[in-house]
């Protein structure tokens, strides 16, 4: 697959990715090279990564605990302290080898250590490949509130090697696939149709490439989310609140990002139908496709009340107003919509039916 040029770097694929990384390391002569991993990527991905680097470079490994619950400032401080203990300087490089938690947190740690060192993302989950590792968003959560602390800063390059997907279970693959489905809903009806036909996660290269192209085209036009880039938040206003709530102590199971966003997209498609005229056929199509792939979550009335309360912390809010991305039709979005609150509970009722 051809490389994709981003605003501040390049996305490389498969064997070319490793070649370009080796070349980059030789040309830049970094003082030290660090690899950030969690216990899963340390076991399943790091050996393959090292093997493909040919043993020609010295790497220091920094390991953190996996999971969204560890994407916080305390873990970030651990990374900063380890970098300092290992004599990292401003000419050092951090390679983030892992999923969205690793690329988000690692990018933020690198962007702020000694006022910024270079970093490179090597996503190993489907979610990170198609979403988290590109676009320059870095950051950590504030308690259970998603991505409240962070900066925009782009990696030197992103290496997408779909072979790493073989290390994932079905649930993780589904989570990433939800973001791909979002790309179809917000930007391309034909891509949405193609994704509906997917019944296994083998030979995903072309679809991953199309998702990356869609997201990159949007980010290139609006790098800091002033306008167009907000469409990438479809499903995320409710989805982030649901994900945050599921991480608290309650009766809900902890949800992966894509699982929560899938619910959010059903809810926000319902709001689109009620406020912007998204056709009932397309609304039912969206609900049906997500329900095929994701187990339905049983929300109590108390759960719904608490999730709605969390909406006030959404990053897209302005002057106390909750802003939604809605669909006029599949592939056509409108940003910054203020939805009547009485529709929130109706949306959950629609999801439950």
UniProtKB/TrEMBL annotation:
GO biological process, one term: aromatic amino acid family biosynthetic process
N-terminal signal peptide: none
InterPro entries on file: Dehydroquinate_synthase (IPR050071), DHQ_synth_AroB (IPR016037), DHQ_synth_fam (IPR030963), DHQS/DOIS_N (IPR030960), DHQS_C (IPR056179)
UniProt keyword NAD present: yes
EC numbers, comma separated: 4.2.3.4
Occurrences of domain 3-dehydroquinate synthase N-terminal (ranges): 62-174
An MF annotation (GO) of this entry: 3-dehydroquinate synthase activity
Nucleotide-binding keyword on record: yes
Cofactor: Zn(2+); Co(2+); NAD(+)
Main EC class the enzyme belongs to: lyase
Keyword field: Cobalt, Lyase, Metal-binding, NAD, Nucleotide-binding, Zinc
GO CC annotation, single: cytoplasm
3-dehydroquinate synthase C-terminal domain residues: 176-317
Pfam families per UniProt: DHQ_synthase, DHQS_C
Function statement: Catalyzes the conversion of 3-deoxy-D-arabino-heptulosonate 7-phosphate (DAHP) to dehydroquinate (DHQ).
PANTHER family found in the cross-reference section: 3-DEHYDROQUINATE SYNTHASE
Protein name, as recorded: 3-dehydroquinate synthase
